[in-house]
């Protein structure tokens, strides 16, 4: 049974309307206000922020609903981005004049590292359908292997978080060390076209922005649907009373594996959209620091709120851009102050602040209280 179904009908309608009001307001800002108010450069910057929002939405499902904190989501973001970048780079390499390279048809960084043939595992990425499949399949496969190995042994909590950090560190070191195959510390750059379509033009950036927004809302609706199914209820129960769920006959480890793979897939989609909009992918998005930043996005927005996760991502990244441009010597300290201030003042994030506001309004207008143990509103 969905959590909201145990509420009185009148309160369920209010919860439903309040929830969709959050989606409608977010859609209005992203689809109407942002394109009208911002130039194409700033709009492309917002599109970059929204690619991070995929990770934050995944963390709402993994951390907020599943109770599993991962500090390595940058791994899956990076793998999705690299899968898309490999296709784009091969297309750019095929189109490049053979006079520039001694070995035509391979990426320039391979040529610089004296590779004379394309590695076999790069070859399938010449085809867009395989690249799109790889965007999802490679991160999900890694998440399944790590999750199955850890959750089957009941490794969780801080231990699992540390292990995911280790995975992020290992992968970033591996990518940097294998410069001839991955582009090294510079990553995969100089991405220009997708199936002959120039992704660097203003019109292409506008199309990619709207595609990013549409895909983000589709993933949010998918996660919302999961939350309101029996699986969503079991995830909450598993988060709060894991032993009780296990004693009821459910395989808790496989539920955790599922939600970990779901979060990995969402992060990978965000990484692919990032590559398309920014035009490169590097190991700087794979390591420990970006992974922790992605957790901050969800924490600021509210780890139980899908809409809040998007707002949190936009707020933190907008602050990061503003502070770095206006106060280049102090921006790291200002970002830390912003994060600490939000977490201290609003422990449940921006979504928690909204819920408190709605609760006060309801108490002022109607004496009836929500059902015991149920949230007043879910955004």
Order the strands across the largest sheet as they lie in space.
Answer: 1-2
Beta-strand proportion: under 5%
H-E order: HHHHHHHEEHHHHHHHH
Shape field: globular
End-to-end separation: 19 Å
Q: Given the helix and strand composition, which structural class is it?
A: mainly alpha
Instruction: Please give the domain count.
Output: 1
Count of beta strands? 2
Tally of separate helices: 15
**Helix percentage range:** over 70%
Average predicted confidence as pLDDT: 86
Mind describing the biggest β-sheet?
A: 2 strands, antiparallel
TL;DR?
The chain is mainly alpha-helical and 379 residues long. The chain is built from 15 helices and two strands. The chain has one domain (3-365).
Any overview of this molecule?
- The chain is mostly helical.
- The chain has one domain.
- It has 15 helices and two strands.
- It has helices at 9-37, 40-65, 73-95, 108-112, 128-151, 157-177, 179-182, 202-227, 230-240, 242-247, 252-278, 288-301, 306-326, 331-345, 349-365, and strands at residues 193-194, 197-198.
- It has a two-stranded antiparallel ribbon.
- Strand 1 and strand 2 form a beta hairpin.
- Helix 1 (9-37) runs antiparallel to helix 8, helix 3 packs parallel to helix 11 (252-278) and helix 5 (128-151) runs antiparallel to helix 11.
- The longest helix has 29 residues, at 9-37.
- It is globular, with a radius of gyration of 22 Å.
- It starts with 8 loop residues before the first helix and ends in a 14-residue tail after the last helix.
- Residues 367-379 have low confidence and may be disordered.
